Amino acid sequence: MSKSNFTRRGLLKTGAVAGAGLAVPTVFDGSVWAGSHSGYRNAPQGDTVTFGFNVPQSGPYADEGADELRAYKLAVEHLNGEGDGGCLSTFSSQALNGAGVLGKKVAYVTGDTQTKSDAARASAKSMIEKDGAIMITGGSSSGVAIAVQGLCQEAGVVFMAGLTHSNDTTGKDKKANGFRHFFNGYMSGAALAPVLKGAYGSDRRAYHLTADYTWGWTQQESIQAATEAVGWQTVNNVLTPLATTDFSSYIAPVLNSGADVLVLNHYGGNMVNSLTNAVQFGLRDKMVNGKQFEIVVPLYSELMAKGAGANIEGVYGSTNWSWTLQDAGTKAFVKSFGTKYGFPPSNAAQTVYAQTLLYADAAERAGTFNPCGIAEALEDFNFDGLGNGPTFYRGSDHQCFKDVLVMQGKTDPANEYDALEIVEVTPRAQVEYAVDHPMFAGGDLGSCNPGA
Amino acid sequence: MDAILLQVLNGLDKGSAYALIALGLTLIFGTLGVVNFAHGALFMIGAFCAVTLQKILNLSSITIDPTQTDFLGNPLKVKTPYVINWFGEVAGSAIINWSVPLAILVAIPVMLAVGYVMERGLIKHFYKRPHADQILVTFGLAIVLQEIIKANYGANPIPTPAPDAFHGSYDFGVMIGFEANAIIYPVWRLIYFCFSALVIGAVFAFLRFTTFGMVVRAGMADRETVGLLGINIDKRFTIMFGIAAAVAGLAGVMYTPINSPNYHMGMDFLVLSFVVVVVGGMGSLPGAVLAGFLLGVLESFASMNAVKGFFEAIYLPSIDQIVIYLVAIIVLLTRPRGLLGRKGVMEE
């Protein structure tokens, strides 16, 4: 059963925005939306506006979800004028001043995704329908992000994605109501390949083990294309079930495959276990084709790096952000987070903090919480000061473009939060791609849905 | 050939864990007639005995180093484990390094106690209830136990490495006439296999050669008659529950260097272990061991690229994910009592 969400008023407003956009294509003028707190789903009527934080609070990514939730609470504090303000002072937009958003205090509700698509959709639905959430954000899995993004599009609320790295989130499954600040598989490949070539040479034979779901597939496709472009050959790509805990039977064939690099397209517990197993099998001590055998983990997470312990020493990977960066935005966020919680934030925490501020800022600039106004404010928006350097929210696919960090496991970490070090800050220009790039082909952004 | 031998080793290694868990599971079923869905949680608790000991050995005194700063720019707090303060750098570091083998000594009494409390405190009240009730209560208990662990240790895997002396791989191929580096296998996994064989042998010897074991076996065969002889069989069965818990716990302790433990690891093994018990024959101890190793080897072979390719060609994709269940179906269709199940056992 399908239900149209178009209304005469919504259509007129969308048309007005489109007209304004055509007339002034590069300058956003939020005055068209100003003061409109009706005509869209869950329009706030009192003195508060409710955000929905949908993160894994149980299941294998519960720790990552907990870190996201800490960052969300911090963002709400800063938006409401509490704490030290965090990145409000460093954010280039300067539309936010700690007095809430559009004069309304920010409240929040939380949901548990359990890192399961059906559970995540159910909790998002509940927050939208029962709690009146104006915006849904969060997650630690691409499968979940794509599922929730679809739901938000149908429901007519904005979805600010959390940690999702599959190309599909802003590729074939992109939606007009969905926005991603986090980087993606293509960007990881584009950033990593030149560094790998510099470190290991261009004459390498790679064997891929890939998690058998949307993120794994697009990550593998991306890193294979990027490494082949610098001269590497791909020996094999083996899909591993997501529920695998012991990877020994998948790693044993690598030993005599002729490969001299193992690429682990795994995340979370899969990554910890496959990397641990690979090191146990002595892969990193082997010489193959006259070269030292190497292991690559394209997507790193600080929390998972802790789980892998000493096994990540010297292993290359990539992240969206690191608390060790020295720009003003990073310093402000790390200081706020570290002072409140006693340890540095993960890159999952940083992306959701940035997403919350970006949403609030967009609402402030648009003068409305109407998803179509938010979308217009975020599309083709250039900003700085949130920790990732100059960043561009591309309007045609709602993907953020910014520098990407190539990381390496530290040999002698000072503490448990110091497992990774930045090897290179890959400039944004190197990881950009056309919106119709084959890896992102298919799907349709569609038009924004205000839900009423 | 070397690839096949590697997968045989892998299979025996996986089978070791399956066999140890299934052995305890079938021991409980054979003695008490209880379908214990909390058995995977006992494996997990054993693993967290190793994690806990590692944490205890790493408890540290804190000194302030004004010459260094932390990530917020405050003077750095330097942690030094108490064992290093007490025993010196060399001895203290060695004690921490050997935390997993040392955890065996901790896990045995802890797991015996956990098994005893679990049986006396909860499970004994369900002996006369239907199997469905037993499954529900033990499954519920398993969830409670894993949530307690998650609340205290978090959801992330916790690295618990083997002693440095057991790091790296052993060139198994050279020993049997292959060229160097053809068949190398992690040292700790070989130790795990030998340890499992030792524990399994010890359990069988205990049941076969001790008076206690003979009484237990007699009780498994005919509980009523043993009771009529004036023997308190319930007490012995309670002790067997503790022993089964200890076996699962030891399997968990020794597994920690293979895969970093997390709160969910018991559930990961539980279903497979039940399949092992059913394929081996309900209540059959040799059956559980045989099926454990058999299914471990088959699972490893099914992961080989050539095998996966062959089955994909005959429209059976992802054979590595279904092979164990496929074999279970075939075995149960051809031998409904399992590989070594006997007529009349658990069939009243």
Quick overview:
Chain A is of the alpha/beta class and 452 residues long. Chain A has 13 helices and 17 strands.
Secondary structure elements and pairings:
The complex is a heterodimer of chains A (452) and B (348).
Chain A lengths: L7 H16 L24 E8 L6 H18 L25 E8 L4 H13 L5 E4 L3 H14 L2 E4 L16 E3 L4 H16 L4 E7 L2 H16 L3 E8 L7 H8 L5 E5 L3 H12 L6 E2 L2 E2 L1 E6 L2 H7 L7 E4 L8 H14 L5 H20 L4 H8 L2 E3 L7 E3 L6 E2 L2 E6 L10 E7 L1 H4 L21
Helix pairs in contact in A: 2-11, 3-4, 5-6, 8-9, 11-12
Chain B lengths: L1 H31 L6 H19 L2 E10 L5 E7 H16 L1 H23 L9 H23 L15 E3 H4 L8 E3 H23 L1 H11 L1 H6 L4 H23 L9 H16 L4 H18 L2 H9 L5 H16 L14
Antiparallel strand pairs in B: 1-2, 3-4
Helix pairs in contact in B: 1-7, 1-10, 1-11, 1-12, 2-4, 2-5, 2-10, 2-11, 4-10, 7-8, 7-10, 8-10, 11-12, 11-14, 12-14
